[in-house]
Amino acid sequence: MQATCQGKLRQNGPWRFRTAVRPDGRTLVCAESWAKRLTSFDVAADGKLSNRRVWADLVGPPDGICFDTEGAIWYADVPNACCRRVREGGELLDEVKLDRGAFACMLGGPDRTTLYVTAAKWFGMDKMDQMGGTGQVLSVEVETAGAGWPHG
To answer: What average pLDDT does the segment 106-115 reach?
Structure first.
């Protein structure tokens, strides 16, 4: 994934990346699973991206991500079967362990303090055909409300 000279976001390779935007709309963060990091860009008024930088190096591969009101990000981690909340720079603030891989997470509910997680049993990339029937939507209450986009 890269920001081109024209400010467009382009991914390298066949994998999609997950994104979240800060509440002020001026920062876009992308989850780079294979690199195990979150990468951020400044967003101009016309939507062009610039100033690519590492937002956080992570201990596990991020999949779905979302911001909270303290500016931290929750990320889903499939192979480590958890969702983690990290601050810019990578400091681990919270972790929710699951019995299956976490593919996406979102803060929602009436006050946006419910962390919703889409999850399924994970047997590895070469055994994805064995995941059928194991999917669930899980939820857990957290202290800090969601913010930014997307939101539940």
So the answer is: 96
State how far the Cα of 4 lies from the Cα of 51, in Å rounded to an integer. Answer: 11
What's the CA gap between 136 and 27, in Å, rounded?
31
Q: How many domains does the chain have?
A: 1
How far is the CA of 31 from the CAs of 23, 83, 134, in angstroms? 17, 13, 24
Tokens of 22: 């800060």
CB atoms within 10 A of CB 113: 17
- Predicted confidence (pLDDT) per residue in 53-73, tens digit: 999 999 999 999 999 999 999
Residue 14 within any structural domain of the chain: yes
CA 142, CA 133: separation in Å to the nearest integer?
28
